[in-house]
Predict the 3D structure of the following.
Amino acid sequence: MAASAPASDPRFGPDRRVTLGQPLKLDGGASLDGVEIAYETYGTLNADGSNAIMLCHATTGDQYVASRHPITGKPGWWARTVGPGKPIDTDRYLVICANVLGSCMGTTGPASLAPDGAPYGLRFPVITIRDMVRAHIALLDHLGIERLHAVIGGSMGGMQALSLAAHWPERVARVMVIAATAAMPAQNIAFQEVGRQAIMADPDWQGGAYYNTGRAPDAGLAVARMAAHITYLSEESMHAKFGRRLQDRAAKTFGFDADFEVESYLRHQGATFTGRFDANAYLYITKAMSYFDLAEDHGGRLADMFAGSKARFCLVSFDSDWLYPTPESRKIAHALNAAGAPVSFVELSAPFGHDSFLLDVPELDRVIAGFVG
Amino acid sequence: MAASAPASDPRFGPDRRVTLGQPLKLDGGASLDGVEIAYETYGTLNADGSNAIMLCHATTGDQYVASRHPITGKPGWWARTVGPGKPIDTDRYLVICANVLGSCMGTTGPASLAPDGAPYGLRFPVITIRDMVRAHIALLDHLGIERLHAVIGGSMGGMQALSLAAHWPERVARVMVIAATAAMPAQNIAFQEVGRQAIMADPDWQGGAYYNTGRAPDAGLAVARMAAHITYLSEESMHAKFGRRLQDRAAKTFGFDADFEVESYLRHQGATFTGRFDANAYLYITKAMSYFDLAEDHGGRLADMFAGSKARFCLVSFDSDWLYPTPESRKIAHALNAAGAPVSFVELSAPFGHDSFLLDVPELDRVIAGFVG
C-alpha cells in the first residue's frame, strides 16, 4: 500500500465527496463558495504519487466510470476499458473521475442549494470547460496529486483534457483526447442550441426555477436528448440497427404512434434520460461546450496554447463520427506539431459514429493501453 | 393562345382553387370528400396540351413557386428557376404547382374544416406521398392534361415525382428528381420524429385540437424547424456563414441569450416559420415522408416500380447534402438502369448542403434547362 494513500485514507474509493475550502474563481467573473465535488477513485496511488490517471466524462456522463450507476443500475460508462487487467489497468494505476462542475450527480451545479438555501436554478453562473478543469485541479490538490500520469477523455472529456494540458501543463505527463475538438464548430453549436431551446420552450421549465414545484421540463429535456442522440450515431449504424423496420407490428398504423423501431428507440432514449439528468445542468453543460474555443485567448493560435507543455499527446478520431470528425482532431495534431510537442494521431475505423469511444472498438483499447504504458 | 386553354379559362393562373367532385381514396383506407386543391399555373397550355410541367414542392413549401408569398411577402421558392426565359421557361411551358394534400396553404389538410364544420385536427387521416400525388393527378384531370411534359421536384418534391412516375407512368414523359430518396433512411426518420415529438410535447398542441383556442404549439413547432433547418445546411456552409462569430456583441454574455450568430439565426428561422405554417400539417407531412418507401409494395424491388414507365429520368444529387446524400440517388439510378429506363444521373458540387436545390447553383440551372428541353 502506498505511503501517500493508506487503505484507510477516506479521500480514495467509490462515491467520494469533497467540499472545497477555497472559492472557485470562474471565467465569467463570478466566484463559487463551498463547491462540492463528487468523484470516484479505483486502484491505489503509488508511493511517489506518480500513477494517477484522471478520466474526464462526456456531456451527460458522470463519475461512475467502472461502477454501477446509482440511478439506472447499469454498469459504468467505461467499465469495458477501466478495471483490473483492462486497457486502463486499475491494478497498476489510480483512476480518478469527477462529476463535472455544473452537472447533477453530486458536484455543485444549478440544482444544488445556493448559500440562501434555495436551489441555484439560473442563478448558477454560466461556466466554461476551463472552469470544470479548475474543479478537477482542486480535486487533485485535495488528493495530494501533483502531476497526473495521464488525463484521458472522449468528446467533452477530450476538451477538458486539452484545457488541462494547456492551462495547467505542469500537472500532467500524458494527454489523450478522443473524438473531440479544440473549438466547437458552428453545426454543433446549432444542435446544442436546439436542445436548449427545447428545454426552455417547455412551460414546466419555469425560467429554471422548477425545483420544488412538482414539475420539471421532462418533455423538453427528452426532445433535447433525442436530437443529440441522433448526432452520436452514424447514419450507417442507424441503418444497420434499425433500417425501416417496424416496431412490434406487421403494418404501419397510419397514426402518430412510433411505427418504426428507430422512433421507438429514440423516444425511449429521451424518456429514460429525464430520470437521471437535470434539465438546467443540460443547459449549463452544453453552453460550456458551445463556448469552448481553446485558443480564443491566444488570438486563435492553437499552437501557442501548448508552448508550455512537456506532455506527450495522443489524439484519436473515428471515421464514422460526423459530430467531431477527423479534421477536428487533425487541427489539434497540427498545432501540437507546430508547438514541438510529441503527438501521435490515429483515425480509427469504427461504425458507431461519435459514440464509438464508448463502444466495442478493440483497436481503441489497444491504442489506450499502448499510450497509458 | 392554345385552343384547350383560352386566356379566360378560369382553371389557369395565379392563386387557383378546385374542389374535387370525387372522394379521394387514401392509402390508409380512409376516403376524403370535398378535397380542395390550391395551386398556381404560369405560362400557357399549348394546343395539344403537351407542354405542361408539374413542379412538386418540398416539406414546408407551397404553390407559390414564382410569385410573391402571400404571408411572408418573399419571392417564390423557385423564382430563380421558373419564369420567362429561365431554366423552366414559362414562355414555352405551362408550369403547375399545387400545395400538397395535408399542408396548410389552401389545399385540404388538418387545419381544414371537416364535414362537421370543425377543423379536422388529428381526425385528419394520415396520408402518404402517393396520396399527395393522387391529389396532383386529380388536378391534372381537372386541367384536362393527360400527359405531363415533365414532373420535377426536389427533396419531398422528388419523392412525389418518383411516385407519380411509378404509379401513373402514362401521365408523364420526363421525370426529374433532385436531392431525394426512394425510401426514407433511418436517420431522417429519426430527425422527423424529433420534430414531431417537439410539437406534441408542447402543451399548447392540445392533442392537435388547438384551432380556435387562441393558442398554438408555436414553441414546439419552432424547435422542430430549428432541428430540421440544421439538416438542410452543410457543416461547411454553416462554418462559412457563421463560424463562431458572436451576434452583435464584443464578448460572450455568460448567459443563455443567443451569443453566437448561428444561435440567433436558428432562433429566427424557428420563430418566423410559426407565422406561416401549421403544426399539425408539419406532423402529417413529415409522417408521410417517414412512411415513404416506393418499392415497399413490390417486395422492395425498386426496379419493378419502373417496369411500366416509358419516361426519361434525370437524377441530381449534391456532394454537400448529408440529408439525402448521393448514394440515395445512385440507388434510384441503378433501379432505373435495371428497369431499362433512360436515365441520366449527376452529382453536382455545391456548398449549401441539402438546400442547394433552392439556391444559386448555376450548374443545376443548366441541367434543368437541358433536361426540360
In short: The two ends of chain B are 21 Å apart (CA to CA). Residues 110 and 124 of chain B are 5 Å apart (CA to CA). Chain B has two domains: 16-186+294-372, 188-286.
